[in-house]
Specification:
The structure is a single chain. Strand 4 and strand 5 form a beta hairpin. The protein is globular. By secondary structure, the protein is mainly beta. The protein has a four-stranded antiparallel sheet with strand order 1-26-25-24, with no helix packed on it. It comes from Sphingomonas aurea.
């Protein structure tokens, strides 16, 4: 890999310029600046749409743990008695009892546009004035994990950005659109509760928009004992006439393989990008371990006309967590063993790939196209 480095860390974010500054009645800090959507701007530079998780400096005080919540009247702090919750995970707390898994967050996420050089190796500008923040009840706990796709070329082309919007109402996928990747319009919810990691293909198939999706649930039916596949979360497919109304594909997409536990849990990574052979899909697999597992990036090549058909894949990871990159940030670390790829751009003989490292920072990697031959 010719270039593989962290290009943005929490230390690069000016908390005083946060859209929450002066609007939350408590001290906050940047827990992480990570999971960046990626695209190329009309001026040739790259745009990362970075998830900034802004957390309470002291979430636990006076016998309560607190969550930040957006409302139309302003941001609120909700106190929960400590005896009612489990605070083992620094990112969230779980409610005890009740019969369902119910949680709240100690941070609120918003999206920060960060302009990189054309090769993605350095920051050119951070556009605080164009930050994307919660704007509806279904986003009251934050806007997370942007994925950006450019669909079409010239005047007929536009940018589509999917995000996860978090609230007690639902954990949904929301869509933003733009004609220039600078000014974004919120179109609303396009996938309902707990259908995460929606990635819109960078191009039409049969005149339709296509997307990878990843619905979650607490129950999965077993494959036969001799099956090549393992039951659990998988990457599904859907198509749409307008990018707003989506029909699930009848055929499955990328499924966890029974031969390895490294993909026991899986989901989409970067939006599928067109190649001469088909669609290149970068996705994440999670090996069970510790609190959150070990996240790695894998790849598959999908048929150009039928993306449910996998032409080629590889069980070895394309990217793995890189402790040497985060070593200088040891005092900021709260997770390890996580690389979560969220963006890809064609750069001629290689791809520029953007990932979140350790739910902390933005990692950019140049990967030669021969890797996928």
């Amino acid at each position: 890999m010719a270039f593989d480095a962290l290009v943005l860390t929490p230390q690069d974010i000016e908390i005083a310029r946060s859209p929450l500054a002066g609007r939350v009645d408590a001290e906050t800090y940047v827990l992480g600046a990570f999971n960046p959507g990626l695209t190329r701007l009309p001026n040739g530079n790259l745009l990362m749409m970075v998830r900034v998780a802004e957390a309470l400096r002291r979430p636990i005080r006076d016998g309560h743990v607190h969550a930040i919540r957006w409302t139309a009247e302003g941001y609120r702090l909700d106190p929960w008695p400590l005896q009612l919750v489990d605070t083992a995970d620094p990112r969230k707390f779980m409610m005890r009892g009740g019969g369902w898994k119910v949680m709240a967050l100690t941070s609120l996420s918003w999206l920060l546009p960060v302009e990189l050089s054309a090769d993605g190796t350095r920051v050119e500008a951070i556009h605080y004035d164009r930050a994307i923040v919660p704007a509806a009840d279904y986003q009251c706990y934050g806007v997370e994990d942007a994925r950006i796709s450019r669909v079409g070329v010239g005047k007929g082309g536009r940018w589509l950005m999917t995000t996860c919007s978090v609230s007690p109402e639902r954990h949904s996928t929301t869509l933003y659109t733009s004609d220039d990747a600078v000014d974004w319009r919120l179109e609303g919810i396009v996938l309902d509760h707990q259908n995460k990691d929606m990635l819109i293909f960078e191009g039409l198939i049969g005149g339709k928009y296509w997307a990878q999706t990843r619905p979650l649930g607490d129950l999965y039916f077993a494959y036969p004992p001799d099956s090549a596949w393992r039951a659990g979360p998988s990457i599904n497919l859907a198509s749409s006439p307008d990018a707003l109304h989506w029909k699930p594909c009848d055929r499955p997409g990328i499924r966890p393989h029974a031969a390895t536990v490294a993909t026991a849990r899986m989901g989409g990574g970067a939006p599928p990008i067109r190649t001469p052979e088909g669609w290149l899909s970068l996705w994440h697999g999670v090996e069970p371990a510790g609190v959150v597992g070990i996240y790695r990036t894998y790849w598959s090549l999908l048929d150009g006309e039928d993306p449910s058909r996998v032409i080629r894949t590889q069980h070895e990871p394309l990217l793995a967590p890189a402790p040497h990159l985060t070593a200088p940030l040891a005092d900021l670390m709260y997770l390890d063993d996580v690389v979560f790829t969220t963006g890809i751009v064609d750069a001629g003989d290689h791809y520029v790939v953007a990932s979140g490292e350790a739910d902390l920072a933005c990692r950019v990697t140049h990967i030669g196209k021969q890797t996928f031959a």
